[in-house]
Hints:
By secondary structure, this protein is an alpha+beta fold. The chain has 3 domains: 1-46; 49-133, RNA-binding S4 domain (Structural Genomics Hypothetical 15.5 Kd Protein In mrcA-pckA Intergenic Region, Chain A, Roll); 137-175, no CATH class. It is built from 7 helices and 7 strands. The protein has helices spanning 4-23, 35-46, 54-60, 67-75, 121-124, 137-157, 165-175, and strands at residues 52-53, 79-81, 84-85, 91-92, 97-101, 106-111, 128-131. The strands form 2 sheets. A 5-stranded antiparallel beta sheet has the order 3-2-5-6-7, with no helix packed on it. The chain has a two-stranded antiparallel ribbon with strand order 1-4. Helix 1 packs across helix 2 and helix 3 packs across helix 4. The longest helix is centred in the C-terminal third of the chain and has 21 residues, at 137-157. The chain is elongated, with a radius of gyration of 25 Å. The chain starts with a helix and ends with a helix.
Amino acid sequence: MLTASVRNLLLQIRELVILSQVQGSKVPSSRFKSKKLKKMAKLKNDISLDGMRLDKWLKITRLFKTRSKALSSCQARHIKVNGKTAKSSRIIKISDTISIQFPNRNRSFDVVGLAQKSLPAAEARELYIEHLPKISEESSEMYKLFLRQEYKRQRELQGKGRPTKKARRQIDKLKNF
């Protein structure tokens, strides 16, 4: 969930955007002190406050490469918004929590911003806050060990390539040539 300070900042930005829409002008980004808030204020000026479609947001934030992949993931019920399975047409708003079930892990995000068009990767990452699970050092070491063993096993299953002259002679001897 969002911390109280982040939630207050989002509410301030939202109020400023509403004021600017009533007055017919944009929110001056110079009013904010931090760079992140200035960027967020610029983003807020470009969008409506109603929200946006889930599949669009997933594509814009680069969590999925294409909108159709986001759509198929929604249809497979891998995406939840605020704990409920969501269709791709679901309208999401700031402060919603999105959980995505990927093949190898689950990820959850808080929506911090919305945008109408694609953004550079660095700016797209500012549209959400990811909840990272806390993993102990012991379990992370065990996971690394597991990955190493799995990699070795995969390498052993693969063919070694062209046999050497000695190996070829042994194969011919087994075949009785």
